[in-house]
Amino acid sequence: MTVAIEMGHTTAGAPATLDLEELLATRLLVQGNSGSGKSHLLRRLLEQSAPWVQQTIIDPEGDFVSLGDRYGHLVIDAEEHTERGLQSAGERARIHRVSTVLNLEGLDAENQMRRAAAFLGGLFEVARDHWYPMLVVVDEAQLFAPAVAGEVSDEARKLSLGAMTNLMCRGRKRGLAGIIATQRLAKLAKNVAAEASNFLMGRTFLDIDMARAADLLGMERRQAEAFRDLERGQFMALGPALSRRPLGLRIGPTDTSPRNGTPRLMPLPESALEDARAIILAAPPPETVRPQRRSSPDLLDQLMAAKSAALEIRPEPAEPQISAEDLAERRERVDRVLRAILAQPDAGFRVIGVLYQEFVVRCRIEGLASVVPDLPEFRRMLTRARAGLGSDMAAGDDAWQDVSVRASLLPDDMQGVFMMIARAAKEGWPCPSDAAIARAYGSHSLRRARRLLTYIEEQGLIVCQLDGTGRRTVTLVELAWATAPGDPNAGEVEQGSLAL
Ligand SMILES: Nc1ncnc2c1ncn2[C@@H]1O[C@H](COP(=O)(O)OP(=O)(O)OP(=O)(O)O)[C@@H](O)[C@H]1O
Ligand SMILES: [Mg+2]
After folding, report:
1. Best substitution site from 185, 230, 232 to test ligand 1's pocket, by max atoms within 8 Å of Cβ?
2. Quick one: which of 82, 133, 259, 326 has the most CB atoms within 10 Å?
3. DSSP 3-state helix, strand, coil percentages of the chain (rounded to 5)?
4. Please, what are the domains in the chain?
């Protein structure tokens, strides 16, 4: 069963849908300048999904309290509760499966962070029996996961960033689907943004945000210029829950009545919880382990904090720790993703930007977001892979090191061809045909393949020779490895050298 909610229409006029189950597994990041329509988009998403799945909104401006009247969300005014009270409220909201709006309006930045962290902590730490799926929407996420330290105390920042990191990096297993919106990607902590696999990018003016958006979407930065021209309510969608290719869409109106009579993602309790307010917000149980924190630091606290900050160098908060073993295992999986992409029949003919986009999305689906290579590294991997080399071979072998140094003298897009020929020469395989060379170059043109070979020869890297029967041998200069004679006109299937 899939449950697709309708977000609006594509630029072509078709319904633009969001797959809720996929969203639960893969999270969402929304970016756009002020007024681009992010909050409207979140509201649409919440309204459309309200009948299907429990939800909570971390709402710094009190924008979403109106959901309470229409859809029955319990509105929690954070101002009126302690951190500990909010932590309990978070746990109970999950236990009783009540949708909530955490209204943080009227609090200063320090307390917005502390109280949001406490509530999120409650959602996160609830016992395993209550790990039902739940959307956790955070509007203005840069307030809770800022890229750099601001005015607030270090402790508040650590708590809040930790809670956001938990939500985005480790929430999935617990059924929490993070949905975060921000005006400025550059202001949002990178590790938090990196864990989303789905993106909705709205109007964006600043180059630095466009560059970050392009990196996340796996687009050339030049392409991201288009974000400047988006209108209010228009977004570019990408990701497993939205679209496999970048898709323009316009968000539909809000305040539609929830659909009913259709299958449910996960049934919510039959009858509404009697007196949800009294149960969720009952006084917290007597203090056992966690000491009660002061709700706002006084001057003395701040001085103490500043002093201890000066005395110790603290590690960066909340970056998830990955062991070397884990990292190697993830790299191996990244390699596998790349091989799967290259195994597609048309892979050789697609431009690098498109391949990279697909690569990034697949890595994210595999939970590899934190180790996705950037575009330059991807180019290098592609070069090695197109030459039929695993990363192990490139690493261990001195002669191969030599080959890659030589390859680096060539323009990026020719390196794969050179490596492929070098491999054939090393193994004594027949010289690749023009068709095989064209394919490795991402082209269908045999003439271009021959020109390419001539060019590489002119750079002094190879020598090409034809024998009496028209078969071609290529020898690597200095290394003196030579291919076996091969027919330039052979179809690629006969070529042993293309081991993709
Ligand atoms: N798709 C849409 N259709 C109709 N009206 C929209 C749409 N998107 C946004 N609007 C309207 O445009 C205005 C700005 O939208 P919204 O508040 O969602 O922007 P925002 O990106 O959240 O801005 P900020 O970052 O300042 O909070 C609102 O009045 C909203 O109702
Ligand atoms: Mg907004």
Report:
1. 232
2. 133
3. 45, 15, 35
4. 4-251 (3.40.50.300), 299-310+322-495 (no CATH)
